[in-house]
Amino acid sequence: MEFTDASMVPPDLQQPLSNFLLSLADDEFILGYWDSEWTGVAPMLEEDVACSSIAQDEIGHARLFYQEVAALTGSVPDQVAYNRTLTEYRQVQLVERRRGNWAFTCARRFFYETADQVRLASLTTSTYLPLVEAIGKIQREEVYHQMHSSVWLNRLATGTPTAYQMLTEALQQLWPDALGLFEPFQNEDILLAAGILPVPSATLEQRWLSSIVPVFERLQLPLPITKGASSEESSAAVYHPTIAAQLGGRQGQHSADFADLWDQMTMVSRMDPQASW
Amino acid sequence: MSEIIAHTSDGSLSEQQIWDALQTVPDPELPAISVVDMGIIRRIDIDVVSSSIRIVITPTFSGCPALSQIQASITERLLSLASHVEVAVTMQQPWTSDMLSESARQKLNKVGIAPPPHVGRGPLLPMLTQQALTCPHCGSRQTVLENPFGPTPCRAIAYCQQCHQPFEQFKPI
């Protein structure tokens, strides 16, 4: 069964779908928020422009998803974006770390963009059609983000020893968070049964790893992943992390960095809930 | 633009009048180009009985900050033709740079922005990174892409090695 709009969603699906859309929206919103901080202070003018432009795109994508949540819950996008307590946000912890140095930003973007690409591709067959429409638009824009993040990973990995070292440190720091990118969504079984989520997160994680492992190998970057023998005829897990994933974001558990960001970004709406801008 | 449908329940306010009016509404970020030539008008509905016009538009980029301004400009312009104007936004048939009209392409060139190459159903990136861009100032194809990101989400920055001018390239999207 396909859902052509919010009004077709049965009551028992509304909450799982809404939380799922919030997960997609919050990832883009929070990452866009941090990356927008490079405006004016990026290492070179071109990157100043690029980061601002990418951040603007991400926040625009978040707005599309927030609109869908608002349609489901009878709210408006600004309210959905700002009027929530800390634990009601659903982003993974990777995106909520402070922007760090340039290598950290580039490393995080590479993890996120490659994972986002895998996730968006899988959602083009979702039974929730407003989501499919939004993704049709988003994918065309993300092409440029993916190119940007790949260029920078390569540039830092093959650049000066300092660049390589800073990138390596950032990647080592970020791997546990990166392995949390495919933390299952809340009520994932319900979403899968309804076809809203066409592919389980565990399968997506394998697809994602199979896309980035060769890149890390080629560039000799830290890779806490072992490759298992591919099992018989099934496509069971081939890549096994050797470190623990940082999970909890999808359940509303967040870091101190996000608490600070939340305080900052919701300040105006908390001071004047009726404000419009 | 064959997919665009205009509906009228009576002949007294014509679809053409609305298209003509919309031709005078500029894109806020590219004032030389109208919202019609940008290809963002998806649908026009006219109800003469209640004197209402409903326009459906689609953004060029989903994070386009000019969208609410475009909605306001269209509303303001069409209120001279009808009592009620609604401008809705859709993501159906998402905008692609192939939807720019021929006239828009010529106007872009005139204001120093290279029009986007036609994409069709092919991949986007090779259109920007793997073929020579054409300088809108001197027409040379001895150019380099400096930055795929520019002053607005829809523009990249390039440089002409022939006339030594930087120029903006409308991104294929």
Contiguous runs where pLDDT drops below 50 for at least 5 residues of chain B? none
How large is the radius of gyration of chain A? 19 Å
Strand order of the largest sheet of chain B: 1-4-5-6
What general outline of chain A do the C-alpha atoms trace?
Answer: globular
Poorly predicted spans of chain A:
none
Report the portion of residues of chain A in β strands. under 5%
Number of contiguous helices of chain A: 10
CATH class placement of the largest domain in chain B: Alpha Beta
Largest interface, counted by CB within 8 Å of the partner chain's CB: A-B, 26 and 24 residues
Helix content of chain B: 10-25%
Radius of gyration of CA atoms of chain B, rounded to a whole number: 18 Å
Tell me what portion of residues of chain B adopts beta-strand conformation.
25-35%
CATH hierarchy: architecture of chain A: Up-down Bundle
In N-to-C order, the SSE pattern of chain B is EHEEHEEHEHEHEEE
Q: What is the CATH homology-level superfamily of the largest domain in chain B?
A: Fe-S cluster assembly (FSCA)
CATH architecture call of the largest domain in chain B: 2-Layer Sandwich
Report how far apart the termini of chain A are. Answer: 39 Å
Computed structural class of chain B: alpha/beta
Give the tally of structural domains of chain B: 2
Q: Describe the largest sheet of chain B.
A: 4 strands, mixed
